[in-house]
Structures are given as structure tokens and as C-alpha cells.
Specification:
It comes from Orenia marismortui. This is Cupin type-2 domain-containing protein. The chain is mostly beta strands. The protein has one domain: Sandwich (Jelly Rolls), CATH 2.60.120. The protein has no helices and 8 strands. It has a 4-stranded antiparallel sheet, with no helix packed on it. A 4-stranded antiparallel sheet has the order 2-7-4-5, with no helix packed on it. It starts with about 25 loop residues before the first strand and ends with a strand.
């Protein structure tokens, strides 16, 4: 938790900024529980909107094209919908993440 701060006038409270300004508008958001070795879609897909993923518990493997990106607890990633992508839990523990859909 080294990258967390205690905001001014807050007590027993730690916070970490997950993103700067996101361009576009939020069209929906959801929480996902992905079991070990689960995920999808298979095959990877593209679409017009972007995803902003926040890992709450566990570690997600985000496949973007040929790249595999590990996103750990309390980390986030913005995925362009124009790139082929999918989300996987390659660990032995339950993955909990929040997905926010952003329209351009």
C-alpha cells in the first residue's frame, strides 16, 4: 500500500488514484467474479467502446492483441475497444474486478 495516500482531513482512510481524466461517457459498469482459469471471450473481440478495468481482488491477465498484461489488485487498465482483447484469470484464486464501459 505504499502508493496509497491519506487525503487531507480524512482519518483511517487510504486512497489511490486509479486513473486521470477518462475521455468519453460512461455507458455502464459491472462487477465480475472470474473463477480460476476462467475468462473470455474466446476468441478475443473488438467493438466501438472502450473498457476501464479495475482489479479489486486477485490478478487479471488482459490479452490485448498478442500482448498479455498482468493487472494486480488495486491496479487498473484502459483497454481500447478497437484492439482485440479478452480477460482471463490464470491464477488459482478468485478474481474480482470492476468493468466500466466508456463510449467515445
Amino acid at each position: 500500500m505504499d502508493d496509497f495516500i491519506v487525503p487531507a482531513k480524512h482519518f483511517k482512510f487510504k486512497a489511490k488514484k486509479l486513473s486521470e481524466k477518462l475521455e468519453g461517457s460512461i455507458s455502464d459498469s459491472s462487477v465480475a467474479y472470474i473463477e480460476p482459469q476462467g475468462g473470455g471471450p474466446k476468441p478475443s473481440h473488438t467493438h466501438e467502446h472502450d473498457h476501464f478495468f479495475i482489479v479489486v481482488k486477485g490478478c487479471a491477465t488482459i490479452e490485448i492483441g498478442e500482448e498479455k498484461l498482468k493487472v494486480e489488485e488495486d491496479q487498473s487498465v484502459l483497454v481500447s475497444g478497437s484492439e482485440e482483447h479478452s480477460v482471463w484469470n490464470e491464477s488459482d484464486e478468485l478474481l474480482k474486478m470492476i468493468g466500466i464501459t466508456i463510449q467515445a
